[in-house]
């Protein structure tokens, strides 16, 4: 009888762990196509919101705007420059480099986003991004 109660308690505890693990933030719906990078207006905790897709390098995000997509419209119409909170690099097999300054200037800050990686930006790049560059293909 004690063994049965112990096993039952163990299954209940295991079930609680499995249920807790299922509440993690989900990846965004894919607004990006293969070989593009998406910048999102919001981070994962806010559902990503509007997006901006790029398939080449942009030395200054001035004049580019987020648009509504599969993850919602929060941020649609807002300038991409200094307003991105997350990056999804679907530009396989190329790294994506996001810069604090225009013209790919890394003196203040920059981040490398590996192919197939989705990140929430942190300070100082969160909502302070000015340019983004796709690196060369990593396929030899």
TrEMBL record:
Signal peptide: 1-21
Superkingdom of source: Bacteria
Keywords: Signal
Protein name: Peptidase inhibitor family I36
Organism: Streptomyces hydrogenans
């Amino acid at each position: 009888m004690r063994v049965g109660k112990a096993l039952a308690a163990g299954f209940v505890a295991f079930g609680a762990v499995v249920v807790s693990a299922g509440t993690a933030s989900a990846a965004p719906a894919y607004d990006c196509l293969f070989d593009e990078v998406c910048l999102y207006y919001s981070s994962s905790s806010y559902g990503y919101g509007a997006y901006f897709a790029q398939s080449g390098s942009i030395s200054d995000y001035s004049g580019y705007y987020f648009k509504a997509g599969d993850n919602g419209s929060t941020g649609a119409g807002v300038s991409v420059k200094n307003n991105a909170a997350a990056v999804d690099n679907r530009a396989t097999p190329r790294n994506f480099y996001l810069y604090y300054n225009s013209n790919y200037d890394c003196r203040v800050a920059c981040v490398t986003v590996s192919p197939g990686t989705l990140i929430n930006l942190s300070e100082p790049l969160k909502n302070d991004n000015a340019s983004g560059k796709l690196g060369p293909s990593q396929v030899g």
